[in-house]
Write a structure and sequence with these properties.
This protein has 314 residues and is an alpha/beta fold. Helix content is 29%, strand content 25%. Strands 10-9-8-11-12-13-14 form a seven-stranded mixed sheet, sandwiched between helices. It has a five-stranded parallel sheet with strand order 1-4-5-6-7, with helices on both faces. It has a two-stranded antiparallel sheet with strand order 2-3. The chain is globular and about 60 Å long.
C-alpha cells in the first residue's frame, strides 16, 4: 500500500474522475457521501488508504457550497485515514473570480479557499486555467496550474479553413491569453475595446483593434458564466463584417439563462472542456465538449512519480 496511487472523487464530477482513472489504468477509489435530513454531510472512505498517494477530483459547480464542504470533509477523512499525501484536484477552483479586494469590507475569497483546502488536509493542489495569475500565489502548499488551451487550439487547428480565422479577445483582460492562442494557430489577433458610460451601466463594445472583416472570428475566454460578454461581442463582430463566429473557453460555467442566450446569439459553435460537468439542461447542439482527462491524468502521474509537471505547460 505504501505510495500506492489512488484517485477519489466527490459528487461534483464523477465522470471526469472515472475518465482520469481510465487513462491511468487504475480503478476509481471507493467512497460514498451521505446527505442527512438536516443537510449535514458524511463522507466515508470505503478502502484502505494508509500510506497512499491520494488525489481527490472535485471542481466547483452547483451546488457550490455543498460541493466545497464535501471536498473539505473528504480531505479531512483521508488525512484521518493516514494517507501519505493528499492532492486536491480542482479543475475549476472554488470562488476563483473573488481574487482581489475591489470593494471595501469584502473577503478575498479565493485566498480563503486556498487556506481551507490546506487546513482540511491537502498537501498540494492541481488546478486548470485559474482566472488570474495571482490566485496561485494564495497557496502556502505546492500547487500546479495546468492549461487546457492547447486542447482548444488543437481542435481549431484541424479545421481546413483555419487560415481564415482571427482570434478575438472580448476585453482587455483576455488579450495576453488570446495573443498566445493566435500565435499557436498562426492567425491574427483582434481586440474588442469596451467602455463604461455612467455609474450603473455595464461596459459596452465601442471599438475594435484589428481587422476582422471577411474573416471567421474565434472569441477566446477562460470561462462562460452568463454568456453576456461573448454574446455582446458576437453581435458587435457581426456588425464589423465577420463571416461567422465561434467561441472557445475552458470552463463552461453557464449560469442562469446562459445556454438560451448562446442559442439565440449569432454563434456557430461554442467549444468548451469538461472541467465542469454539463447536465442535460445545459447541453446544446452548438456546444462541443473536449476532454481534459488525459491532461489531468498525465499531471497526476507526474506528481506521483516525482517528475516535472511544468513540461506540460511550457
Amino acid at each position: 500500500m505504501a505510495n500506492a496511487l489512488k484517485v477519489f472523487t466527490g459528487s461534483a464530477h464523477p465522470a471526469l474522475a472515472r475518465a482520469i482513472c481510465a487513462h491511468l489504468g487504475i480503478p476509481l477509489g471507493r467512497s460514498h457521501t451521505v446527505r442527512f435530513t438536516n443537510e449535514n454531510l458524511k463522507v466515508k472512505i470505503d478502502e484502505n488508504v494508509r500510506g497512499a498517494d491520494v488525489f481527490v477530483v472535485q471542481p466547483s459547480c452547483p451546488p457550490v457550497s455543498e460541493g466545497l464542504v464535501e471536498l473539505l470533509i473528504m480531505l479531512d477523512a483521508l488525512q484521518g485515514a493516514s494517507a501519505e499525501r493528499i492532492t486536491a484536484v480542482t479543475p475549476y477552483f472554488p470562488y476563483v473570480r473573488s481574487d482581489k479586494k475591489d470593494e471595501p469590507r469584502i473577503s478575498i475569497t479565493a485566498r480563503l479557499m486556498a487556506d481551507l483546502l490546506q487546513t482540511a488536509g491537502a498537501d498540494r493542489v492541481i488546478a486548470v486555467d485559474l482566472h488570474s495569475p495571482q490566485v496561485q500565489g494564495f497557496f502556502r502548499i505546492p500547487s500546479d496550474q495546468l492549461s487546457a488551451r492547447d486542447i482548444l487550439v488543437d481542435h481549431f487547428r484541424k479545421r481546413p479553413d483555419v487560415a481564415e480565422h482571427v482570434v478575438v479577445a472580448p476585453d482587455a483582460g483576455e488579450v495576453k491569453d488570446a495573443a498566445g492562442f493566435a500565435k499557436r494557430l498562426g492567425v491574427p489577433l483582434a481586440i474588442v475595446d469596451k467602455r463604461r458610460f455612467g455609474d450603473d451601466e455595464k461596459a459596452r463594445a465601442v471599438h475594435l483593434v484589428g481587422e476582422v472583416r471577411g474573416k471567421r472570428a474565434l472569441i477566446i475566454d477562460d470561462e462562460i458564466a452568463t454568456g453576456g460578454t461573448v454574446s455582446e461581442s458576437a453581435d458587435f463582430l457581426l456588425r464589423e463584417g465577420v463571416k461567422d463566429i465561434s467561441i472557445a473557453v475552458v470552463h463552461p460555467v453557464l449560469s442562469g439563462n446562459a445556454v438560451a442566450r448562446l442559442r439565440a446569439a449569432p454563434i456557430a459553435e461554442v467549444v468548451v472542456t469538461d472541467t465542469l460537468p454539463l447536465p442535460p439542461e445545459k447541453q446544446d447542439p452548438k456546444i462541443t465538449v473536449l476532454s481534459i482527462a488525459n491532461l489531468l491524468a498525465e499531471a497526476i502521474a507526474r506528481v506521483h512519480d516525482g517528475r516535472s509537471v511544468s513540461e506540460l505547460y511550457i
